[in-house]
Amino acid sequence: MKLLLLKNCLMINITNQNIEKKDILVKDGKIDKISEILDYDACNTDVIDVQEQYVMQGLIDCHTHVGIIEEAVGKIGVNNNETSDPVTPHMRGIDAINPFDLAFYDAIKSGVTTVMTGPGSNNAVGGLSTAVKTYGKIIDKMVIKDPVGLKISLGENPMSTYGKMNKAPITRMGTVALIRELFMKAQDYIKLKEQKKIKERDIKLEAVVALLKGEISLRVHAHRADDIVTACRIADEFGITKMVIEHGTEANLVKDYLAEKNIPVAYGPMISPRSKIELKNRDYNCALELIESGIKVALITDHPYNLIDQLRITAIFAISEGLSQLDAIKCLTTSPAEILRCNERIGKLQEGYDADIVVYSGKPFDINSKVVITLINGKIVYKR
């Protein structure tokens, strides 16, 4: 297998924001070496002279429905909500992902190399999400981690979905009661399994076991501040140590509480209309407020509610409100990698990491900059 060498790359040092010129050697899908000048064997190395264009690690969107809500397909391609039942922890996002969805191509041409994709928010308990690379034909070969979290939804969506059917949940209390009921049954199920008293496996409860054992995260759809606090209450009641607030429109109103509990926020979508009451306090400044409070923040598109190729644009909006370039980089790379608990492989332009690399025509957060080249696992998957 030939090596790949990217020469004369402008890299942003994420510790001091200095611009450094480096060569990057890629081997077996990983970043093998990064140095000022790397020699190479012409017979065994493909060389790309980047010509002092900016190079960054691939962007990561840790909350989307890419491949599950398909583009240009219509209703039959909308597979994110199994609304036959408000409690569906056993739904697995991977079973609905179409790797040929047009959004995957939009992702790679905009420098997004990893996404978390999974169930929607109409159910009190929606199911299991997965983290995948954005290039490939066989979804199982694109997976980085499956599952990465169990989705629950608080607030307007479950109530509006089932309330009109006069079926629980009709209220916020009803939504949380369904979640508690499931988690209590799962606790009892775990005890019976430990005592070897289970005669028949329960597919719904099996899906919750990994969460209660701390193996995956609780991913909580919550916009309003009171729903965010409710999520914290649920986590405390059931000893859940890994939780992520998804959306967090009003997270800044309870930022000190989130900081105290060390709970990260996957914030967004930012570039969206206030289409429901829970979004009335949407503010481009929220990410900055959260970060200044010591909260780990990832910016998300929630594709297709913002399009996947708008991920970098959300950071530009946040920068316009005072977010530093360094924090913007973290919001799109290291922080979402840590939230997905895949940070041993992705999120850094560093030796030993997956060679998910993006070359830009100008400064990464210049609105006029274009993605010139995208590499995923060391393979050129897009070239402008």
From TrEMBL:
Transmembrane segment boundaries: none
InterPro entries the record matches: Amidohydro-rel (IPR006680), Metal-dep_hydrolase_composite (IPR011059), Metal_Hydrolase (IPR032466), Metallo-dep_Hydrolase (IPR051781)
Lineage: Bacteria, Bacillati, Bacillota, Clostridia, Peptostreptococcales
Keywords from the UniProt entry: Hydrolase
The protein's name: Imidazolonepropionase-like amidohydrolase
The keyword Hydrolase appears for this protein: yes
Boundaries of every Amidohydrolase-related domain copy: 54-381
GO MF entry, a single one: hydrolase activity, acting on carbon-nitrogen (but not peptide) bonds
